[in-house]
């Protein structure tokens, strides 16, 4: 692949958390180094990725309400965590490969 080439995102599996103002974590499913985050909640979601024992906080990566963010999380990441700025709602984490969606 040439430098700067874009590959379409190919999903491999989706996990979700029931977001609230308390952090929630979930094991990622599927394979690949990319994770597509979709914030279905009505408030900003803050997300964090790691191996185990991951807890998101309000200083982590923000994802606006109704927005998607594609992250190159790496092959070794196994867990995602999210916390909402207010209210409740779902945050979805879809693992796969690719650089654009």
Distance between the termini: 18 Å
Could you give the order of strands across the largest sheet? 1-8-3-6
Element order: H for helix, E for strand: EEEEEEEE
What's the rounded overall pLDDT mean?
Answer: 95
Query: Class by helix and strand content?
Result: mainly beta
Cα Rg: 13 Å
As a percent range, the share of helical residues equals under 10%
**Strand portion, in percent?**
over 45%
What sort of overall outline do the alpha carbons produce when their principal axes are compared?
globular
Count of runs of 4 or more consecutive helical residues:
0
Low-confidence stretches: none
Strand segment tally:
8
Largest sheet report: 4 strands, antiparallel
Concise summary:
The protein is 0% helix and 49% strand. With 101 residues, it is mainly beta.
């Amino acid at each position: 692949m040439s430098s700067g080439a874009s590959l379409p995102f190919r999903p491999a599996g989706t996990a979700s958390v029931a977001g609230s103002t308390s952090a929630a974590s979930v094991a990622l499913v599927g394979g690949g180094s990319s994770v597509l985050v979709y914030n279905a909640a009505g408030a900003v979601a803050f997300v964090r990725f790691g191996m185990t024992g991951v807890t998101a906080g309000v200083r982590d990566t923000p994802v606006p309400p109704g927005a998607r963010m594609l992250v190159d999380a790496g092959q070794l990441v196994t867990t995602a965590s999210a916390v909402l700025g207010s209210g409740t709602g779902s945050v979805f984490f879809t693992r796969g490969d690719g650089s654009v969606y």
